[in-house]
Structure formats: structure tokens, C-alpha cells
Amino acid sequence: MWIIEALIGLASGIAVGTGFVAFLTVLGIVPRLMQLSHSEHMLRYYEMAVILGVLFGIYLSFGDGPIQMTLPGLMIWGLFHGIFIGMLAAALTEVLNVFPLLFKRIGVEGHLFTLLMALVLGKIAGSLFQWIIFVR
């Protein structure tokens, strides 16, 4: 039985890791950040930041002990969260510029609003379904 659980855990880890890499690749967060800040020479630091962030996130998710922080530590932690959310929002905004080009390319530019609203309403419906059915 433990072999099945190990295989499920391995498959889940591979799926999540692949999704994370695809997320970074599709949104192009790191290259866009380097382009905007003119810091292409610091590529290794960006790579290390992503890797250390993933490893620290794994520790926080699966670690047993709580992490004690002082007020300045919490302020720095909050600053990093704000920077991450801001960059994520900017990256998503740039990705939305892809939709008009894609819809024009496949010949459905007249239905842009309808298709975007379907995406938005589908996301809302999926979120509500998850929170109402699984979280409550």
C-alpha cells in the first residue's frame, strides 16, 4: 500500500513542479523583471532566488516547527509578499494582452468580450464551487 502512496506523492510532486515551471515560463516573470530593471547581468541571482524560494516554501508547507519572527522580520516578510503579488499582477496584465492577438489570429476577434467573460465567469464559478463544496 505504501508503494501506491509513494507513487501518488511522486506524481503529484512532478505535476505541481511542472505547473510551477510552466507558470513561470508562460508568464515570463523573471525575464520581464530583468528587462524592466535592466539587470540581465544578475541572472544567476534570479535563478537562486527562485530555487531558494521554492525550497523555503516546501519547508514552510511540510515543516513541523513554527517560525518565530520579530516585528521588523514580519515587515520584511510582508514586503516580500507585496513585491511578489505586485509582480504577479503585472505579469498577468501583460498576459492578457496576448488574448486579443490570439483571438485575431484564430479569427474570432468579434467575440473577444464574450470569450473573456466566459473565462472570468468560469474562474468565479470554479472558485465558488471549491469554497462552497470542499472548504466549508
Can you walk through the features of this model?
This protein has helices spanning 2-27, 29-37, 43-62, 71-96, 98-106, 112-135. The chain has a domain at 2-72. The mean pLDDT is 82. The chain is an all-alpha fold. It contains six helices and no strands.
Please name the defining characteristics of this protein.
136 residues, mainly alpha
Blueprint of the fold:
Layout: H1 2-27, H2 29-37, H3 43-62, H4 71-96, H5 98-106, H6 112-135
| C-alpha Rg (nearest Å) | 19 Å
Low-confidence region ranges: none
Structural class: mainly alpha
The geometry reads as extended
Number of strands: 0
Task: Report the biggest beta sheet as strand number plus sense, adding barrel if it closes.
Answer: none
Q: What is the distance, rounded to the nearest whole angstrom, between the alpha carbons of the first and last residues?
A: 30 Å
Estimated helix fraction: over 70%
State which percent range the strand residues make up: under 5%
**What is the succession of H and E elements?**
HHHHHH
Nearest-integer average pLDDT: 82
Tally of helical runs: 6
Short description:
By secondary structure, this protein is an all-alpha fold.
